[in-house]
Design a protein that fits this description.
The structure is a homotetramer.
Chain A (H helix, E strand, L loop, with lengths): L2 H5 L10 E9 L15 E8 L5 E9 L5 E8 L3 E6 L15 E19 L6 E6 L1 E3 L1
């Protein structure tokens, strides 16, 4: 139970998670009452890569009434968490505001994805969070 | 890792998800302070079909004190997301407001279902979301 | 795909869910600003029994600093949903307010359990929900 | 179906849960409007140990831009729930406020972990909760 067990080569950290994740619920509020990045309305995919190799992740965005867009490419470095704001995705194109969407994450190494939204359209904030749907 | 891998015939997108999904918690608030469809109280099943074939989905609604109602029929088209508001289900009958219910989704192809509610009975909104219970 | 498939004897509805469920997070707020049962602070286990036999459920409540209490007995009738408020559990003893607890559900037939809380300690409501941890 | 079944040696309570859990989303709000510990902004890992042996748990905290920190050691006693506030972790070092993080829990016996946050940065509270990602 020493720290070598945790951070060493043969650690369980190498194989935590799944390679495919889905967030079926996506919506970027069109407005916000927040005056800081923290309190601005946002939707986040919290990605954790516990392993020793960088995770190369392809994101595809699905819509209600047109073909999917992607892939978007992001990297979750080894032993790091990446709290990715969907508002920040720009290439190949930004995700439109006030539009229903869904997202699929495909990674070359196991990761964990949790979905969170902060909505500050009104004076008080509202929060939601759920572990995404994972499949190996 | 080129885009053909993602959108091609042999893609993992064909087999993401499950065919049976359950949302054990359902409740349509009887009132709302929202003046737009976006901020009106609503309960949503966010459905994603990543595959190449349309998903034909049968929804059954369960109640506390009477027989289940259904099936309701909806289609989640190939490569599309459907953010279905329970308030919009009309046939065979609308879901009553201010009543506890639960829902089961049966699809002919794999889909993913996430449950979200926006409650604007009071001045500020409250949000909840969770990936539904899936079973293949 | 006719309705007999859904409501018939050989339906998939007989085997949806798990027999053991856990809600590791429990807390009954000590106060409330709601003036109706709907807007009163409450914590709910939303139970769905899609099968043809009543579910006999034993609930055990765990605490931080004393032995578990139970079993509490509840029945989720066949083809019904039961939205159980923890505030309503009385036998063998009520769950104390303002105290951390956790709960385990054991059923004799498969069920699905989703955990929801409405907190109205302040003027606006806050909501949370998550599918419980299930194990067969 | 007597209580010996539940609390006895051969009970299902011995094997409920998983040994590895992940919360990919972590954030300690830097401020709070709450004047009591209950209404202060906080992030909690609700841990349940239903078994007969104490759970020795190692927590590792991951960040966006530096090496992980840990292990933190906590004990969830037999037949007890532990509602652990991340704000209370001090050794080897406190978790910084207003910083994205993620956490991995490794236990020597099966446990269940649920993630909850209460955010009272503004006048009204916001809540989120989700069962963590578990892996045996």
């Amino acid at each position: 139970m020493d720290s070598a067990w945790l951070f060493g080569k043969e650690t369980i950290m190498e194989c935590i998670g799944e390679r495919v994740w889905v967030i079926a619920e996506g919506y970027l509020p069109p407005s916000s009452t927040g005056d800081t990045r923290q309190l601005e309305s946002h939707e986040t995919a919290c990605i954790l890569n516990t392993g020793e190799r960088d995770a190369h992740i392809r994101i595809t965005i699905f819509f209600a009434d047109r073909e999917p867009v992607g892939p978007y490419h992001v990297v979750a470095p080894a032993r790091r968490t990446l709290h990715l704001r969907f508002n920040d995705l720009k290439d190949p194109e930004p995700i439109p505001l006030d539009t229903d969407y869904a997202s699929v994450f495909e990674s070359d190494v196991p990761i964990i994805v949790q979905h969170t939204r902060l909505d500050s359209r009104r004076a008080e904030i509202a929060l939601l969070s759920t572990v995404a749907y994972g499949q190996d």
